[in-house]
Amino acid sequence: MNKEPRAGRHFPPAGESDGKTEQVAAMFDAIAPRYDLLNRVLSMGTDRRWRRKAVRVLGRHRPRHVLDVATGTGDLAVEALSVGAESVVGVDIAERMLEVGRRKIDRLGLADRVTLRYGDALRLPFEDATFDAALVAFGVRNFENLESGLAEIHRVLRPGGLLVVLEFSRPRHFPVRQLYGMYSRFVLPAIGRLLSGDSGAYRYLPASIRVFPDGEDFLAVMRNAGYDHAVDERLTFGVASIYTGQAGSTV
Questions:
Q1: pLDDT number for residue 201
Q2: Which of 8, 12, 27, 172 could pair covalently with 16 via S-S, beta carbons 3.0-4.6 A apart?
Q3: What's the topology of domain 17-169+213-247?
Q4: Which residues contact 96 (CB under 8 A, 6 or more apart)?
C-alpha cells in the first residue's frame, strides 16, 4: 500500500487536483455569516442531534486531545469538550467560517481549550501521532482527494486513535428516498438562497451527496487509508451516517 502520506508528503497525486479546495473554501466563506442558522433551519434541528451522537461515540474512547477537521464554525469542536476532551483543535479551509467560530468560542469563554486555525485535510499542519481522536462532520465530501485526506488524518492520529466521521448518505428505501430527493433538489436550494442570498452551496450539497461513496463503499476507502475496525451506523432513515475506525500502526 502507498505509504507516502505517512512519510510527510501530504499533497494529492499529480494530476488529481482540480481546484476543488479553493472552490469549496470560496463557497462556504460566502455563506459563513448565516451558516449556523441555515443548518438549523434546513435540517429542522436534526443536525444538532447527529453531532451530539457523533461526539458520544467519540466519548466512549475518552480522548484527551482531539482534532476536528472541516470544523466550520466550531460547533463540533465545542461539543467535544462535553465528553471530557482536554483540548480540541479545529481546522478548516474557509477563513470566514473560522472567524465566525472564533467569535463564538470567545463568547463561550473556551479559547483556552478550543483553537481554530486554517488547515487543509490533505496538508495538516501537525506532527505525526499528535491526537488521540479526530472528528469530521459533513466535510469528507469536500476533500479534494478522499483517500489521501483520510490517510493524512491517520498520520496525525496516535496508533489506535479513533476517527469519527459524520456524513450525509443516501436513503435507500421508499418513500424516504423519493421525498429526500425532492427536498434536496428543490426545497433546500430555495431556502438556502432565501436565507443566505446564495443558493450555490445548497445546489452543491445534493450533487456532492449523489457522488459520495457512502455505506460500505466509504468503509472500504477507510480501510484502504489504514483504519481498522471500520463500521457505520445509519441515522434518520439513512439521511446521514456515522463511520468509525481506529488508526492502525501503519498506512
A1: 66
A2: 12
A3: Rossmann fold (3.40.50)
A4: 28, 29, 32, 33
